[in-house]
Write a structure and sequence with these properties.
Pfam families: Por_Secre_tail (PF18962). The protein is mainly beta and 241 residues long. It has 2 helices and 20 strands. The strands form 6 sheets. The protein has a 5-stranded mixed sheet. It is globular, with a radius of gyration of 21 Å.
């Protein structure tokens, strides 16, 4: 009997531990990003996109903390969540007396938790963790997201054309630019599929979207002969100084 009770107790403890580990879930996980950079393009960034979902049955006042495990000197890191895109100097969204902007997630709700790395023309690799906790118990780490980045140097014209299409800066507060060849038009839709903006595009052009409401959008990159080349997620967001 004692053995049965002990087994049941251990099972219950293990189940509770598993549930606690799954209270906040990253998707995808881990987050791995690799791309070519042009050493003369100081504005280029690598972005690790992730969504965090509250899988518990209680609301969570989410606190995140950026931990730089390894990163080349000269690189900069910026974190974006549902509320804001923070400056590169901000390592957490909740530091009492300094910054207190928790992400409140009710059961089943989600937030983006995107990490933007700016190599500043320097090739290399980086490993960055995002630790999650509740602001009411910040020392209890509920979940950790692992982000890895690899910035490769463009050494030839062939490499340059292997760069995938991307819109930058992303998030943006005003203008967007496009990296990639062969795009004739950029069409921006809201998440309901309604067209919000359409731009004819030539290489090197910038396009103003500062008058759009803050939020998530989809940007279709279109070639007049080949059709839609790619659709990318775009975030219009106020930038926190």
């Amino acid at each position: 009997m004692k053995k049965a009770i002990l087994s049941a107790l251990l099972f219950t403890l293990a189940l509770c531990s598993l549930q606690a580990q799954e209270a906040l879930v990253f998707d995808p996980h881990p987050i791995n990003v690799s791309d070519y950079i042009n050493v003369n393009d100081n504005d280029y960034e690598l972005v690790g996109y992730a969504t965090v979902t509250n899988n518990s049955d209680e609301a969570i006042s989410l606190r995140w903390e950026r931990i730089i495990v390894d990163m080349p000197d000269g690189w900069e890191v910026q974190v974006c969540d549902l509320n804001l895109c923070y400056s590169t100097s901000v390592y957490s969204n909740f530091v009492p007396g300094e910054i207190e902007i928790p992400v409140v997630l009710n059961p089943g709700e989600s937030t983006n938790l995107d990490v933007h790395v700016k190599p500043r023309g320097i090739a290399g690799t980086a490993s960055i963790d995002i630790e999650l906790s509740d602001t009411n118990d910040p020392d209890n780490i509920i979940s950790t997201g692992a982000y890895t980045f690899e910035a490769l140097v463009v050494t030839s014209t062939t490499d340059l054309y292997r760069q995938p299409f991307s819109i930058y800066p992303n998030p943006t507060a005003d203008y967007i630019s496009l990296r990639g060849q062969g795009v004739d038009r950029i069409v921006i839709y809201n998440i309901l599929g309604r067209q919000m903006r359409a731009f004819n595009h030539d290489s090197g052009q910038r396009h103003f979207i500062g008058d759009l409401p803050n939020g998530l959008y989809l940007a279709s990159l279109i070639n007049d002969e080949q059709g839609t080349l790619k659709t990318v997620r775009l975030k219009k967001s106020a930038m926190r100084p």
